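Ticket 4471: requesting a sanity check on a complex prediction with 5-O-phosphono-beta-D-ribofuranosylamine. Repro inputs:
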Amino acid sequence: KRLVVLVSGSGTNLQALLDAIAERGADAYGAEVVAVGADRTGIAGLERAERAGLPTFVCRVKDYANRDEWDRALAEATAAHEPDLVVSAGFMKIVGKEFLARFGGRTVNTHPALLPSFPGAHGVRDALAYGAKVTGCTVHFVDDGVDSGPIIAQGVVDVRDEDDESALHERIKEVERRLLVEVVGRLARDGFSIEGRKVVIP
Ligand code: GRF
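Returned structure tokens:
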């Protein structure tokens, strides 16, 4: 299966996928990353892709007349690589109608909180501020909401008294990277169906 991965930052989730595929072999894992897209330049995620010899593309919102034009450009740039699955790994933009028309139902996102708790761009900070005792990460399908699509898998992480946002986020990311690699491999190898809010992987 062909994966396009979308990033906005350090790209450690992308790196985890690349490492797993390199280690197990694309055939055994069931997928290979064919391209990496981003909403901004100058991020480690794009450097990781370039180091892996992968094609990259960048669609910056400010380069387009409006959000819909950006969304269309992102969808077209993604479609050019003919993905079977799109993985949003730390991609910090909400995709729109055009993107979902083409890739809805086969775009997976990873979020650093236990959805439906603490959706949005500051899930780690919000869980900490709320005083949650456990938090974690969620891998889910993207729908037309924000972090609201059908949940595929979740991982739990304890919150420690001494945690600040970055310490907690790093601990979450250790679980998140393993969860994402496992989920993407299963979806690619075994296929899946989405029945309402239920994801079935045979
Ligand atoms: C991940 O925790 C992701 O869930 C969140 O931002 C982080 C991205 O990390 N949206 P990286 O870019 O994969 O290192």
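Notes from triage: The pocket of 5-O-phosphono-beta-D-ribofuranosylamine is lined by residues 7, 9-13, 45, 89-90, 110-112, 173, 176 (CB under 6 Å). Leaving this open until the requester confirms.
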